[in-house]
Amino acid sequence: xxxxxxxxxxxxxxxxxxxxxxxxATNPEITRLAARGSCRDxxxxxxxxxxxxxxxxxxxxxPSKSDLQQRDILIVTxxxxxxxxxxxxxxxxxxxxxxxxxxxxxxxRRQRQLQAWHAQPFPNDHLDxxxxxxxxxxxxxxxxxxxxxxxxxxxCPISTIRNHLKEVRGLLNLPxxxxxxxxxxxxxxxxxxxxxxxxxxxxxVHHNQFADITKADVSAYDTRRLAGADGxxxxxxxxxxxxxxxxxxxxxVMREIGFNLD
Length: 262
What we know:
With 262 residues, the protein is α+β, with helices and mostly antiparallel strands.
């Protein structure tokens, strides 16, 4: 799939494609990104620890807000710990076959340590401190995904790790001001992941000012994504998913571990 022409890959993904400059139309890195898909089917092969460490090093080359570096990556390969962590995430049954997991941590603790070690005040103890650390972790996640797929591995982020914050913090021995933003299953793919259709570029890439999407736009996307299959469309499925309360204790846990969310 990665050797398919870039325009075709974009058309498959978005239902439309940008005008492609000639020098980008055959760029292998962009073509690989256009062809990527989340992997939920893994071979049982274990991953060489050196590979995981190298991928983490590549991920931590990602930019960081003001060079504060408020993100860490925790590799989970210990069989017992991996089993316990997977048991918390069994809503994703496919995770049972993943040979390794990495957890992306927002780490605002380190900055607070720096303030104390240098006898400096910490007047920025508000919502932005939480946000900056979370975003740093998210950027590192994206970099690791690109690096892993370039190395021939498959991966899939797992946000439901935040459904079990207290249990995960205990398993991973996380101190105050450090929390998991997401997990990621990593392994050798059993098959080539499918390309997931996305909302059209014309409605999600804005020029100079925001233009809202319409119900008709979303309905057309639902039809394209279903492609004749049975079941609810994307919009109905996501509306039903968010009609039930989720992570209602998240802010409480963040305050318990020291964040001021004002």
